[in-house]
Automatic annotation (TrEMBL):
HAMAP family: GyrA
Organism ancestry: Eukaryota, Viridiplantae, Streptophyta, Embryophyta, Tracheophyta
Name of the featured protein: DNA topoisomerase (ATP-hydrolyzing)
E.C. number(s) listed in UniProt: 5.6.2.2
Catalyzed chemical reaction(s): ATP-dependent breakage, passage and rejoining of double-stranded DNA
Residues annotated as the enzyme's active site: Y220 (o-(5'-phospho-dna)-tyrosine intermediate)
Length: 951
C-alpha cells in the first residue's frame, strides 16, 4: 500500500479529494495493522503546534519536502514514542546540519488525537466567537460589536439616523471580519419588535415583517440606538467597568463585554446553533425580570417558587397564550423545557339570523410566519382536511393583526378552532435550551443560576466603576489641595515663579518651598490669572469639600457588599420605571395545549362534598331531597375509616374552584374536572386533582365564575387573623399552588369568603359571640401577608364561622346597614342563621346586632349550654318565594356523613339569648361537621319522610 506523492504547489486533499477520502476510510479499516510514515518537515525534536502536524492539510508546501515511506506492520522499539502506533502517522525529521542525512528523529502523531484536537479547536471557536451569547451581557460577539460601533459613531437615541451600510462597514473594518450579510442580518433582528421583546436598535425604513418579508438593502435603511440600549448596556462603558481586548488585527481595542444593568439574556432571549451544541432562550418582561432580580438580591437563597411569584413565565414579543406552566417550571429548574404557545383568537358573530360566525386571529405564536400560516389554512381547506371554513382574509394593518376565518352555517367554532390548533402552527412549542457562555465555557443553566451569574458580574462592574471614580476623585482632590495651598501663599508663589529661569526650575522650587508633588506644582503653574481671585478660591474650597464627600461615599461603597447590591437594585428599578411595558403573552393554567371541554359542558348547578381526609365528589343538585326539620337526614355516602365530612357547597360546572389549604396555599381546578359520582360513592382523592404536599388539608373551597376587579376574598384563620385580598390575584394559579396568606406557627387558614367593599362581614366564635364589620374597614393586602386581629377571644374560645352580608340587604334605595338597623327593630329579615354542633339552630334578625370595628369582643348571638358550641352562621333572607317567605335551604352534614336538607323558613326566629330549635337529630351521628346554603330547586322537591329514608 502506497501514499501518493504530494505536489509542491497543492495538498493531496485538494488535488485528489476522492482518493483522499478513500484513503481515510482505508486508514480507519486497517489502523490496527498498518502504520504510515512520512518524510520530515523540519521538526526540532519536540512536537510543535497542532497546525504543523495536520495530516495532509496544509496548502503551502513546507520548507523541506515530505518524502513518503512504505507502510510497515510494526514499529521498532527505538521508534516507539508514547502509545502504540494504532492509526498513527510517523513523521521523520531529517536535520540537514547533522552530516548528510544522519540524525533522523521519529515523532508519533495519533490521527484520532489530531482530528479530535482540530475539531475541538474549531468547535470552541464557533461556540465562543459566533453562536452562543455571554451570560453576563446576553450578547453574541457580532451584536456586541454592532452596538459598540454605533456607540463609537455617536448614534445615540437623540441623534439623527445614519445609513445601515455605514455601520456595517464600520463593524466589518474594525471589529468583525466576516460577511456583510451576517452583520446586517444581526443588525436588522435587533431592530425588529416582533423578534426582540425590547429592541436594541431603532430602525428607519423597511426592516422586514412578521410575514417573513426581507428587509430592504442596507444602503436604503437607517438606524440609531434605542434609549434602553444606552441605559442598559452602554452606560459607564468608559469608566473601566469591563476589559478591552485587541481587535482582529490588533489595531484597536474592543470591549469583551458590555456593562449590562439588567440580565439582557433573559430580557430578549437568544437563539443559536453551534458545533454539537445549541441555545434557545425565551424573552421575558422587563418589569417582571427586574422584580425577580430584586428578589434575588434581597434573598440569595430564594426558591424557584418564590422567584415565580415575580416572574411567572416568558413574555414573547408577538403575544399569544402560554399553555400551562409545567414546561416553564422545568426550563427554569434545569435549563431545558417545552413551552406550548397558542395564538390569541376571538369569535365574532357575522349574522344573528343564520348564526354564522368567524374566528379572528389577533396574535400568533413566537417565530411563526403569518403568511405561511394563512397559506397553510387555505391549503387544508382546499384539501378538505379542515372543514367548516368558507373564507379566509388577512386584514392586518398598522393598527394590529387581524386574520378573519369565516365559518360555514352550522359549523361549531370550538371544533374548527381545535382543528386549527392541531393542524397548523397557530399552536406551536418553544423548546427552551438555556445555554450560555460562563467563564469562557458553555454551560446549561436554570433561572437561579442565570440571575446569580449576572449578579456576580454586575457586582464586579459596580466595584470597578467605583474604583475608577475614586481614583479620579482622589487625583482631582490632590490637585485641588495643591491649588488651594498656592492660593493661600499667592505672593510667595509668584515671587518663586518670577525668580525661576525656566519651567523646570519653577516646578522644582514650588515643590521644595511648599512641599508639593509634581502634579500639584504643574497645576499651580497652569492656573490662569483670572482664577487668582478670592471668589475662585472659594470655588476650589467647595470643590475640595465635594470631592472629599464623594471619596468617603465611594470608599464606603467599596467596603460594603450590601451597598453594592442596593445600588444594583436602584439602577435596575430606574430602568424599569423608564422602560416598563405591560405583559403581552397571556398565561393560562392548563396541563396541555388541547382545547378544553368547557365549551361543550352545560353550565349546570352541582353539589361538591369534601371530607376531612381529602376526598371530593361531584353530585347532581337533586341528589338530596327536602326533608322536615328535626329529621335524621340522608347519608352522603361511604366514608373512609376515621373520616368525616369537611365542607359541602353548591357551584356551577364552569366555575373555577379555589381550594385553600390549612397551610395558607391556594390551588385551582375547574369544577367540571371533578368526577361526577353517585351519592353512595366514596369520591376522588384530592391529591389526584391538586398538587398537595404531605400532610396538607383543604379547609375551604370557593367557586368563582368571574374574576371581577371589585371583588375580594376575606380570609379568617383559626387563631382569629383576618385579611382581604383582591380576587384578581387568584385569576392565574399554577398547578403547584400559590401563597394565599402568611401564617404564624400553629395557625391554620379555615374560612374564605368572597365579598365587595359594600358588603359586611359577620364573624362568630364557638361561644356565640358575634361581630359585624364593613368590608371596607378591612385593609386590602397582598397575598404574602398575615392580616390583622379579627376579634378579641376569651380564654378557651375560638373562631367558629364567618359569612358575608351582601350589599343587596338594602330594603330601600340608599339604605345602608346602619340605617336599616336603626329603623328596624322588628323580627323581619335579613337574619343570621345559627347552627350549633348538637343540631340546634335559630334565626336572629341582623337588626339586633350593631356594627363594630375589628379586634372587639362582640355581642352575644347564641346562649349555649356548657356542652354545646357554635358550628356555623349564615346570613339568610335575601331570596324569597311567591308567598314572601324565604325560599333558601340549608344542608347540614354530620361527622358520620349524614346529610339533612331543610328549608330556612322552617327554622324559627328567636332572640339573641334563645337556645333555638332542633334542626337535625344526632343520636348516632356525632356532631354537625359543616353546613351550607343552597337555592331552591325549580320544581317542587319531593319531601321524604325521615322514617322512609335510612341514614
Amino acid at each position: 500500500m502506497k501514499l501518493h506523492t504530494l505536489n509542491p504547489q497543492t495538498s493531496f486533499a485538494q488535488s485528489n479529494p476522492m482518493a483522499f477520502s478513500t484513503g481515510i476510510r482505508l486508514l480507519r479499516c486497517y489502523h490496527h495493522q498498518f502504520t504510515f510514515a512520512a518524510a520530515p518537515s523540519g521538526f526540532s525534536g519536540v512536537r510543535k503546534a497542532a497546525s504543523e502536524l495536520r495530516f495532509l492539510s496544509s496548502v503551502n508546501p513546507p520548507r523541506k519536502q515530505i518524502r513518503p515511506v512504505s507502510a510497515r506492520r510494526r514499529v521498532t522499539e527505538e521508534e516507539e514514542v508514547g502509545d502504540e502506533g494504532n492509526g498513527s502517522v510517523i513523521m521523520r525529521d531529517r536535520d540537514s546540519n547533522e552530516g548528510g542525512g544522519g540524525g533522523e528523529r521519529i515523532v508519533h502523531a495519533e490521527l484520532h488525537k489530531e482530528a479530535t484536537e482540530a475539531y475541538m479547536a474549531y468547535a470552541m471557536s464557533v461556540l465562543l466567537g459566533r453562536a452562543l451569547p455571554d451570560v453576563r451581557d446576553g450578547l453574541k460577539p457580532v451584536h456586541r460589536r454592532i452596538l459598540y460601533a454605533m456607540h463609537e459613531l455617536g448614534l445615540s437615541s437623540k441623534k439623527p439616523y445614519k445609513k445601515c451600510a455605514r455601520i456595517v462597514g464600520e463593524v466589518l473594518g474594525k471589529f468583525h471580519p466576516h460577511g456583510d450579510n451576517a452583520v446586517y442580518d444581526s443588525l436588522v433582528r435587533m431592530a425588529q419588535d416582533f423578534s426582540l421583546r425590547s429592541p436594541l436598535i431603532r430602525g428607519h425604513g423597511n426592516f422586514g415583517s412578521i410575514d417573513a418579508d426581507p428587509p430592504a438593502a442596507m444602503r436604503y435603511t437607517e438606524c440609531r440606538l434605542e434609549a434602553l440600549t444606552e441605559a442598559m448596556l452602554l452606560a459607564d462603558l468608559e469608566q473601566n467597568t469591563v476589559d478591552f481586548v485587541p481587535n482582529f488585527d490588533n489595531s484597536q481595542k474592543e470591549p469583551s463585554l458590555l456593562p449590562a444593568r439588567i440580565p439582557n439574556l433573559l430580557l430578549n432571549g437568544a437563539s443559536g446553533i453551534a458545533v454539537g451544541m445549541a441555545t434557545n432562550i425565551p424573552p421575558h418582561n422587563l418589569g417582571e425580570l427586574v422584580d425577580a432580580l430584586c428578589a434575588m438580591i434581597h434573598n440569595p437563597e430564594a426558591t424557584l417558587q418564590e422567584l415565580l411569584e415575580y416572574m411567572p413565565g416568558p413574555d414573547f414579543p408577538t403575544g399569544g397564550i402560554i399553555m400551562g406552566n409545567i414546561g416553564i417550571l422545568e426550563a427554569y429548574r434545569t435549563g431545558r423545557g417545552r413551552i406550548v404557545i397558542r395564538g390569541k383568537t376571538d369569535i365574532e358573530l357575522l349574522d344573528s339570523k343564520t348564526k354564522r360566525a368567524a374566528i379572528i386571529i389577533q396574535e400568533i405564536p413566537y417565530q411563526t410566519n403569518k403568511a405561511s400560516l394563512v397559506e397553510k389554512i387555505a391549503d387544508l381547506v382546499e384539501k378538505k382536511t379542515l372543514e367548516g371554513v368558507s373564507d379566509i382574509r388577512d386584514e392586518s394593518d398598522r393598527s394590529g393583526m387581524r386574520v378573519v376565518i369565516e365559518l360555514k352555517r352550522g359549523s361549531d367554532p370550538a371544533i374548527v378552532l381545535n382543528n386549527l390548533y392541531r393542524l397548523t402552527s397557530l399552536q406551536s412549542s418553544f423548546s427552551c435550551n438555556m445555554v450560555g457562555i460562563l467563564n469562557g465555557q458553555p454551560k446549561l443553566m436554570g433561572l437561579k443560576e442565570l440571575l446569580q451569574a449576572f449578579l456576580d458580574f454586575r457586582c464586579s462592574v459596580v466595584e470597578r466603576r467605583a474604583k475608577f471614580k475614586l481614583s479620579q476623585a482622589q487625583e482631582r482632590n490632590h490637585i485641588v489641595e495643591g491649588i488651594i495651598i498656592g492660593l493661600d501663599n499667592l505672593d510667595e508663589v509668584i515671587n518663586t515663579i518670577r525668580k525661576a529661569s525656566s519651567h523646570a526650575l519653577a516646578t522644582a522650587s514650588l515643590r521644595k518651598e511648599f512641599e508639593l508633588t509634581e502634579k500639584q506644582a504643574e497645576a499651580i503653574l497652569d492656573i490662569s490669572l483670572r482664577r487668582l481671585t478670592a471668589l475662585e478660591r472659594n470655588k476650589f474650597v467647595d470643590e475640595g469639600k465635594s470631592l472629599r464627600v464623594q471619596i468617603s461615599k465611594l470608599e464606603e461603597l467599596l467596603s460594603s457588599k450590601k451597598q453594592i447590591l442596593q445600588l444594583i437594585e436602584e439602577e435596575a428599578l430606574e430602568i424599569k420605571s423608564k422602560f416598563f411595558t405591560p405583559r403581552r403573552s397571556q398565561l393560562e393554567d392548563t396541563d396541555s395545549g388541547e382545547l378544553e371541554d368547557i365549551d361543550v359542558i352545560p353550565n349546570e348547578e352541582m353539589l361538591l362534598a369534601i371530607s376531612e381526609k381529602g376526598y371530593v365528589k361531584r353530585m347532581r343538585p337533586d341528589t338530596f331531597n327536602l326533608q322536615n326539620r328535626g329529621t335524621i337526614g340522608k347519608s352522603v355516602g361511604k366514608l373512609r375509616v376515621n373520616d368525616a365530612m369537611s365542607d359541602f357547597l353548591v357551584c356551577r360546572a364552569h366555575d373555577k374552584v379555589l381550594y385553600f389549604s390549612d397551610k395558607g396555599t391556594v390551588y385551582s381546578a375547574p369544577a367540571y374536572k371533578i368526577p361526577e359520582c353517585s351519592r353512595t360513592a366514596a369520591g376522588t382523592p384530592l391529591v389526584q386533582i391538586l398538587s398537595l404536599s404531605d400532610g396538607e388539608r383543604i379547609t375551604s373551597i370557593i367557586p368563582v365564575s368571574e374574576f371581577a376587579g371589585d371583588q375580594y376574598l376575606v380570609m379568617l384563620t383559626v387563631n382569629g387573623y383576618i385579611k382581604k385580598v383582591s380576587l384578581n390575584y387568584f385569576a392565574s394559579i399554577r398547578s403547584t399552588g400559590i401563597i394565599a396568606i402568611q401564617l404564624v406557627t400553629g395557625d391554620e387558614l379555615k374560612w374564605v369568603k368572597c365579598c365587595s367593599n359594600n358588603d359586611f362581614v359577620a364573624m362568630a366564635s364557638q361561644n356565640g359571640m358575634v361581630i359585624l364589620t364593613p368590608c371596607a374597614n378591612i385593609r386590602s393586602l397582598g397575598r404574602n401577608t398575615r392580616g390583622s386581629v379579627a376579634m378579641r377571644l376569651k380564654e378557651g374560645d375560638k373562631v367558629a364561622s364567618m359569612d358575608i352580608i351582601p350589599d343587596a340587604l338594602q330594603k330601600e334605595p340608599d339604605m345602608t346597614l346602619e340605617v336599616h338597623q336603626r329603623k328596624s327593630r322588628s323580627m323581619n329579615g335579613p337574619w343570621l342563621l345559627f347552627v350549633s354542633e348538637s343540631g340546634y339552630g335559630k334565626r336572629v334578625p341582623v337588626s339586633r346586632f350593631r356594627t363594630s370595628p375589628l379586634n372587639r369582643v362582640g355581642l352575644i348571638g347564641y346562649k349555649f349550654s356548657s356542652e354545646d358550641r357554635l358550628a356555623a352562621v349564615f346570613v339568610v333572607g335575601f331570596s324569597f318565594g311567591e308567598d314572601g317567605e324565604s325560599d333558601e335551604q340549608v344542608v347540614l352534614v354530620s361527622q358520620s356523613g349524614t346529610v339533612n336538607r331543610i328549608k330556612v323558613r322552617d327554622i324559627s326566629i328567636q332572640s339573641r339569648y334563645a337556645r333555638g330549635v332542633i334542626l337535625m337529630r344526632l343520636e348516632h351521628a356525632g356532631k354537625i361537621q359543616s353546613a351550607s346554603l343552597i337555592s331552591a330547586a325549580d320544581a317542587d322537591p319531593e319531601v321524604e319522610d325521615a322514617a322512609a329514608v335510612e341514614a
